């Protein structure tokens, strides 16, 4: 029998009941990221989908508060009407996880998974825009943390630890996020035919320029050919893409400057509004560029200059974002899915097995195994929020 | 002064043994025993509260920090970390039965990595020192608290420091990629690094802003940003506070994110102008400095828009900086606002609340009423873009009762900020100053959840106790579950 609370009080009672009985809960918003993380065995599903809506949006204050299961799509539409955005560019992983249509899930899910898109390099990730929440801990206690204003350092920054915790510490009821004005225009500069090392050098050049680049990605020839953007697909070469956003005058001036400096690396071309938007959606959402539905997918976060080495460690189909700092790899879903080779390819970083069959996600650590000292702290944090281990047991690791 | 935990007589009785033991860990001048030398550490930037530390330790290696922590853990000795001691909330206020751990000797820039746009530095490097180490290549470190010339990056991490550029560039937490930290158990751990994302629990995210309660940071990896191509400022005066507030709201609603937007009220304008002659208009009720930074083409376009918006909101004076020198002059008054106020009043305390910006005019009127009620003066400077208000309460500590009146006034102002939908502190931290006001913002369960997090890092409560949280509870007591099987009926469970 599953739980489907329709208000905060019911939510608290559900968790308090489970805590009292020691019953485990599969915490689920809209379920679009159910296949992210270790497979969870739980006695019941805590279905949060009814805790949606009740949006308080104040564009001039740059904050939005709503119930956690509110659809991301609805929020983005609302923001668009006021020319604002969630600056961390939440990805839509619907297609990656095999949904028949685009589905970016709920805002609570996006925050709980802490996923940021290409603009991460300039504007930060979900964690950086998560201002406050109310929710229920694994103790069954309702509590709030953070605030509804954009600048606050009162007490511990609990939204940070809840971001990325995949529902293992607390169940979100209501969330407040920072919103930002969206650039009126967007364009990209493409550089064709670079090898991975040269591409990283070109991206460093662009990212270290004063032109406020908001996206820097490299598509090897194979990935580029799959793009639905004609200029990219028909290049018959690798494509390095640099994005700028802002007012029309500013975007034009910065693109011109970038074309000049990047011209030293290879042939360049500008990609205007619609095509640029489409390309960065593909980069953000991954599935179109790495379309093999049977492949295991890795998401590897490293220092940007380490990107090519990570890509070279396995014979993977791949591309990278974040100037080289985020490498997406598609490998056969067999053996350890190259986990050992991929994780040995960097000294400092984090490899996440984003998509793989359940058995593989049980056999291989989905999230980067932490050092012993950090693992001990993680266990301690889990025990404080959820002493009986009832919330999404084992979703992050065997121990929590 | 808020009540501090009662010093442990048993620890104090062992003082000379403890000093000797610490000398075995940190040799030479790294252990300060003499009372007159310890006096130098008796307060931080919140100098109305003082306490003499039992002993001061200035380690110079990570191994020494780890050994000191292990020793304290094993012997039940409290420890208070300290950077440059510029904090404004008393986070580094010593404990009479505790060790003050000064991190000033960790003052090296370890690595600058322009290709990955980051730097690894020791925690005792000053905030400005980071920018100075990278500016030759056109880079800088973005958060810029007004104490940046003196405050250390380790202290910035502890307090999650801000500055005037937060709205566009974020607080410390958005600009720190990783730390190396020594836990209370004496273990050295690394959180984050040069990469942007680490899955799993974001321990780094809670260590930043934890006010020295979770660990001692021994290395910080910070993001470096390329300096904007240009920056220009516009100085605008308004006949009322409402007009200034409305102007800020419209700038943001039109999609402009300035590098900085600062507002001053009339008393602050007058104090600043008398001090530095920045050319501020004296017949206005509020003054706004709006700075736009970025590519030249964009800044030129947007500054014209800001000037138009200012006119639409009844601006009576408006000047755009035409040179770098003029821009710096606009800022000179604002940056000197604190010392300027120090000239017109023997003492002042700087408060730090955040409010929803739309409440600005009511809150400023409320502050003025509160100050009048307590018989003290007040001047306001305001990081207007993000709603972070700094009322400066003016008083004379030599006059009977004025310090108490100023403290009471400050507490009332912060309660007003919370009641307006805001928070107790936007960038200075809770420390000792706002500790006892925490219940005005958080209920018992909210506070218990935060305090339990500390238990995961410091089960014995030895690291900076008496700060941030109004009551000390033993971890074992807080760890108990409140509900037990069978005790709570669940009549209304929505089961499907």
| Low-pLDDT regions of chain A | none
Number of beta-strand segments of chain A = 17
How far is the first residue's CA from the last residue's CA of chain A? Answer: 24 Å
Low-confidence stretches of chain B: none
If you compute it from the alpha carbons, what radius of gyration of chain A comes out, rounded to the nearest whole angstrom? Answer: 21 Å
Kindly report the spatial arrangement of strands forming the biggest sheet of chain A.
Answer: 3-4-8-6-7
How far apart the termini of chain B lie comes to 55 Å
Shape of chain A: globular
Largest sheet of chain A: 5 strands, antiparallel
Mean pLDDT of chain B, rounded to whole units? 94
Number of helices of chain A: 14
- Proportion of residues in extended strands of chain A: 15-25%
Oligomeric nature of the chains: heterodimer
- The number of helical segments of chain B is 17
* % residues in beta strands of chain B: 15-25%
Shape of chain B: globular
How would you characterize the largest beta sheet of chain B? 8 strands, antiparallel
Structural class of chain B: alpha+beta
Helix content of chain A: 25-40%
Largest interface, counted with CB-CB under 8 A? A-B, 107 and 111 residues
Q: What would your notes on this structure say?
A:
- The complex is a heterodimer of chains A (400) and B (496).
- Chain A has helices at 8-21, 72-81, 107-113, 120-123, 158-162, 196-207, 221-224, 230-233, 248-262, 273-285, 307-312, 339-344, 358-363, 372-385, and strands at 25-28, 44-47, 56-58, 63-67, 84-85, 130-137, 142-146, 170-178, 180-181, 185-192, 213-219, 239-246, 268-271, 296-302, 317-321, 326-331, 349-355.
- With 400 residues, chain A is α+β, with helices and mostly antiparallel strands.
- The longest helix of chain A is centred in the middle third of the chain and has 15 residues, at 248-262.
- The mean pLDDT of chain A is 96.
- Chain B has helices at residues 9-13, 15-25, 35-38, 62-75, 127-134, 153-159, 166-169, 203-207, 241-253, 266-276, 296-312, 324-335, 337-344, 360-374, 402-419, 444-457, 475-479, and strands spanning 31-32, 55-57, 78-82, 98-102, 109-113, 118-121, 139-140, 176-182, 188-192, 216-223, 225-226, 230-238, 260-265, 286-294, 317-320, 347-350, 353-354, 377-383, 388-395.
- In chain B, the strands form 4 sheets. In chain B, strands 12, 13, 14, 15, 16, 17, 18 and 19 form an 8-stranded antiparallel β-sheet that branches. A 5-stranded antiparallel β-sheet of chain B has the order 5-6-10-8-9. A 4-stranded mixed β-sheet of chain B has the order 1-2-4-3.
- In chain B, a hairpin with a 5-residue loop joins strand 8 (176-182) and strand 9.
- The mean pLDDT of chain B is 94.
- At the A-B interface, helix 1, strand 7, helix 5, strand 9 and helix 9 of A face strand 9, helix 8, helix 9, helix 11 and helix 16 of B.
